[in-house]
Structures are given as structure tokens and as C-alpha cells.
């Protein structure tokens, strides 16, 4: 069900399923599936009770259309299947050993109540499983009643099956899933990600979660993840750590990567120097437009960095020779590929100095309708570029990722629009 589209009776998509919420009952009482966590537009996760679900099949979930738009808040008696049950190690009640939960099935009974019915399990603990999950005799299906201690939090829980269920998520969505997990589970899932994916996710998490995860990773792994992050994001994260811990991690990083980060740490957080990325696309004026377009095609470039190239005298690594101008991709696409990039460089946009403050940086981007702007040092050498996403991250409130984006907030608190509060949040969480 993970990722299934949720539709209302008219066929309009409401959102996507991100998890199923169950209540684990002691004794022989069936474990009920009480609702789904659904991601609606705006990346908000809301609770849809199973009583509102009229149909579930292999391709979609149909609801009655009545959805409480308040952000989902998990209750103490509730368990999320993807977030908390998958990868849990539990004993079989027949005493034949431990199994790891790979997947579970829910079914509807005669009273139209959904409940946990079966589990697909693998014998043993994830740390001791063979490389191939489907090995004969190891994976099998059991009735949910054959699993013991299902409500007991497992101390050695892995994350492979949870990650398999959400592997198609983009980094911001995966970061939100991780952010909503319990601290212990959050660290388990983060540790199971590869360096590149974890770096992307860390860039989307609140600062306190970044610090918590990086601290728990250990020196070598933490340094590897910092190397995979964008230098400006790595510098922001290291600035939140105690100085001795930050220096220890910098010493473990590749010297070249660490040098970029150290350079950024030397500038104030709210200056162009502190905001910039030190690795924009830099070319000499003699390079051709064809070469420039080939450079901005690189998959690892963000759209904002790929929107323009910066033309400088050699050397062509920051800090460069004298900065000459910037060539916008839209202009280059209108020119012959053999033409020199220096001939189409925009020399009218003034570069910013490393000491320029955040408000002026934002005004500069808005005034000239730019998505990136060059940053130079005292002698006019290009040292980096500030992109619009760098500025937005610093203009928004510190906890903007966790802020509730209710309709009232979007309307700026316009109390004159009577009744809107009833639309967004007064439907109770029915069971």
C-alpha cells in the first residue's frame, strides 16, 4: 500500500498512502488497523480513519471524501506499520525461534473492520540474514497470532524493509518520514542509508535532528556523509557542533572537501560568504557555449546552479582569477554552439562581496530576477555563488520544516473569512 494514490468518490486524488496505523492489543484480541497516514498536497501528513475507506485494491484507495486536514499526531496506543513494525524481530509463539517482519497484510472482517491478519517474515535477525532474502526455507508467511511480543519495542531493529518500502521517495519526503519517527528508530533508519542518500536527507532535516544523527554515526561515517553534502550545508551543520567535535570531523574529511568547508566557516552565517556554495560552474571567456552546456548537464548540479555559468580569468577554481561576468543558460541556448562564452556573458549584474548581508543578497536576487548571484573577495576573484534556495533556507523561520501549514497560516491570519477553521480541522478522528 505504500505510495498508493488515495481518491475521493468523484475520482479526484486526495493524496498518497505513507503508512498504516494499527493498535496492538494484549491477549487474543485482534490487532486493528484504525487508519492510514496520507500525504496530501503541501507534504502534510493527515490521518484518514479506516471507517472513511470504502475500497482498497492493488492500484488505489477510495475514501468517502471527508478528510480531517489537521496534521497527523500519533497516539501512545498506536503503532505505524512501516515506521515501527517492519524489520522488528519477534519470537514465534511455538518456540521455534525469532523472525524478522518483512511485511504484513490487513484484511476486513464481517463487521467491516480492518485488522492485522498475516505477516511475511524471515527467520533470524537482520544482522544475521543471508544476502538473498528469498532463500529457500528462510522466508514464509504466518498468521499474525503466531507472532509473540508484537507490542514490545525491539532493541535491535534494522531498517532494510522500511527503506525498501519508501525507496522511491525524494529526499525531502524521506526526511519528513524520518523526522516523524521515534528518536531510536530515526537513528536506525538514517544509519541504514548510503552516504549520498543520507547527505541529501540531512540537508532537509531540522538542525537538532542533523546534529543528533551526525553525532551518533561516529567519526569516520560522519566524515564520509559530510563529504557527500553540499559544502555550504556541511558548514552550516558543523557550525552547530561544539568546536572540538567539528574540528575532529574536519580532520577526518578529505583535505580538499574540508578546505571548502573551512573557507565557508570563516564567514558569518548571514553573509554572502556564509550562504554561498564554493563550487559553481566556472569557465574561461575562451570556452565555447557547447562546453558550457555540457558542464551544466551534470546530474549532480542543482537546477539553480545549472541556470548560469560564471566567466573568469584562470585559475578556474575558486578563488579564481578576475571575475568577468555570468552567462545565463537561456541566452546560451539561443547562440551557436561554437561561440565563445565570454561573448555572451552578462557584465551588468554586479557581484556581491563576501561580507554582504542576507537582506541585501535577497534584494539583489529579486531586483535582477536571478536564481544565482556571484560572490567575490576583496580583489575581485570569484569565490562562490549564492542561489535562491540558499537564501530561502535562511529567510524562513528556524523550524519551518516542522511548522503546521494550516489554511489559516497560508492566508496570513485573515480572521474575516469566517468558517474556514471548521473546514480545516473540526472533524474528529473517528475510530
Automatic annotation (TrEMBL):
Q: Does the keyword Lyase apply?
A: no
Show where the CBS domain sits. 276-344, 345-403
Superkingdom of the source?
A: Bacteria
Q: Which UniProt keywords apply?
A: CBS domain
Entry-linked Gene3D superfamilies: CBS-domain (3.10.580.10), MgtE N-terminal domain-like (1.25.60.10)
SMART domains according to UniProt: CBS, MgtE_N
Q: Does the keyword Transcription apply?
A: no
Q: What's the protein here called?
A: Magnesium transporter MgtE N-terminal domain-containing protein
Q: Which species is this UniProt entry from?
A: Spongisporangium articulatum
